[in-house]
Amino acid sequence: MATLRPQLEAIANRHRAVVAACHERLDRLTDAQLRWAPDDKSWSIVVIADHLIKVHAATSQAFMRVLQPAPMLGEEAEKEVPYTYFDRQFVQMLSPGARFKISVPKPYEPVEHTGPAPAVVNRLYEEFEAFAVILDYADQKQLKRIKVVVPGRSSRHGIVSYLDSVVQHDRYHWLQIEAILRNRNFPKE
Fold first, then answer.
1. What DSSP string runs through 47-75?
2. Mapping DSSP to helix (H, G, I), strand (E, B) and coil, where does residue 119 land?
3. From residue 126, how far is each of 95, 121, 132, 165 by CA, in Å?
4. Sign of CA pseudo-dihedral 45, 125, 7, 72
């Protein structure tokens, strides 16, 4: 795999870390373990996966809509695309340890699946792979002036900060999954 320009490579590395952690910890879990939640108000692993699938599916479409017509990369390759104040706030709100919890927009509200829970996790892996393809594609384009409308909200953010926020959001939910796995009541099998 070729190395991306530095700013995108940093985002890709965080993304790869989440994907690797998911494979390492989730691939061997049973249906019952994937569906277990600590209480009625908490999401199970499969519900978190459903939420992330919805987020990735919607954002992938938004990214491709703005990337396809974008000009090919020129001299921008080594230059960092700056984040605006609002871009930094958006990334921070979706990151682990965020001070404020934002509500889940209706299109991203997860549901409990009745089919096999491992199939939902595998679908999440497909979305993760699609995101990696988008990062590769974005690396071929001029990104400085590209803005993306956040699906389910009306705000617009720079594409690099938005790519970053998606990965930070994945990391946020990975920490929720880790907490579920560490819970003393988590089913052993």
1. HHHHHHHHHHHHHHHHHHHHHTTSPBP-G
2. helix
3. 22, 9, 10, 19
4. negative
Q: Tell me the pLDDT of the chain (189 aa) as tens digits.
A: 568 999 999 999 999 999 999 999 999 999 999 999 999 999 999 999 999 999 999 999 999 999 999 999 877 667 889 999 999 999 999 999 988 878 888 889 999 888 999 999 999 999 999 999 999 999 999 999 999 988 777 789 999 999 999 999 999 999 999 999 999 999 997
Q: What is the dihedral of CA 57, 61, 64, 66, to 10 degrees?
A: -130
Place of tokens 């954002």: 59
Within a 10 A sphere around the Cβ of 109, how many other Cβ atoms?
13
- Please name each of the domains of the chain with its CATH number: 6-182 (1.20.120.450)
Give residues with Cβ within 8 angstroms of 186, minimum separation 6.
33, 36, 180
Q: With CA atoms as reference, report the closest residue to 6 among 145, 143, 130.
A: 143
* Rg of the chain in Å (alpha carbons): 17
What pTM, to 2 d.p., does this model score?
0.94
Cα–Cα distance measured from residue 16 to residue 39, given in angstroms and rounded to the nearest whole number = 30
Q: Each residue of 94-134: pLDDT tens digit?
A: 999 988 878 888 889 999 888 999 999 999 999 999 999 99
Under DSSP, the state recorded for 139 is T
